[in-house]
Amino acid sequence: MKKVILGLASSIILASSLDAFSFKKDSLKLTFEGYKTDQFIATAGEFTDVTYNFSKDTKSLESYLSKAKIVVKPSSAFMGEGNDLITENITKVFFPTLLGKQDIQVNIQNVVVGDETGLISAKVSIGKESTIIPLRYTIDGKKFTAKGQLDLHNFKNASKALRALSDVAPGHGNISWSLVDLSFNAELE
């Protein structure tokens, strides 16, 4: 009888751990892709200083992401090796014009869970201004990817910031687009 109870307890513990959901902390990555020139050419970067606060409730994806808060330091934008001038334009001209010294706040509002795919509603805030963007996510094995698109014109200083970026970056051909593709990637525990 004792072996049966221990076996049952082990099975319950194993089953509950299989349902657990969380991200490997060192795998979290927030990237973005902005567009320039009249040909809509992409320029990709990532934020290297991001604070993630997920729920301690790991019983499901929905409970883990529910009410998650993410704080992004815009000064940590990195446009890739050898792109020092682009990084400087983004961190010293674009972001200060767009948001001053404020951080970008992201709060998860809602999670719709499907079969290896779903939708996350994320509230992106700069100071007192905010907009909600949908992020479609997929899970492929242990890889989690959520993607969405932000229109910067939801923020009052967007036109001014885009103009300032175009003025300082001749490679933009006087056009910096307001659409920014966002991607959040992580590995599952």
Number of helical regions = 4
Instruction: List low-pLDDT spans.
Output: 3-18
Q: Which sheet architecture does the biggest sheet show?
A: 10 strands, antiparallel
Order of helices and strands: HEEEHEEHEEEEHE
Residues in β-strands, percent: 35-45%
State the shape.
elongated
Note the gap between the termini: 34 Å
Major sheet: arrangement of strands: 3-4-6-7-8-9-10-1-2-5
Question: What is the secondary structure topology, with strand pairs?
Answer:
Elements: H1 2-18, E1 29-36, E2 41-47, E3 50-53, H2 61-65, E4 69-72, E5 77-78, H3 84-99, E6 104-113, E7 117-126, E8 129-140, E9 143-151, H4 158-168, E10 179-187
Antiparallel strand pairs: 1-2, 1-10, 2-5, 3-4, 4-6, 6-7, 7-8, 8-9, 9-10
Give an account of the 3D structure.
It contains 4 helices and 10 strands, in the order αβββαββαββββαβ. The protein has helices at residues 2-18, 61-65, 84-99, 158-168; strands spanning 29-36, 41-47, 50-53, 69-72, 77-78, 104-113, 117-126, 129-140, 143-151, 179-187. It has a 10-stranded antiparallel sheet. Helix 3 (84-99) runs antiparallel to helix 4 (158-168). 21% of the residues are buried.
Quick structural overview:
The protein is α+β, with helices and mostly antiparallel strands.
From the structure above, extract its key features.
alpha+beta, 10 strands, 26% helix, 189 residues, 4 helices, 10-stranded antiparallel beta sheet, single chain
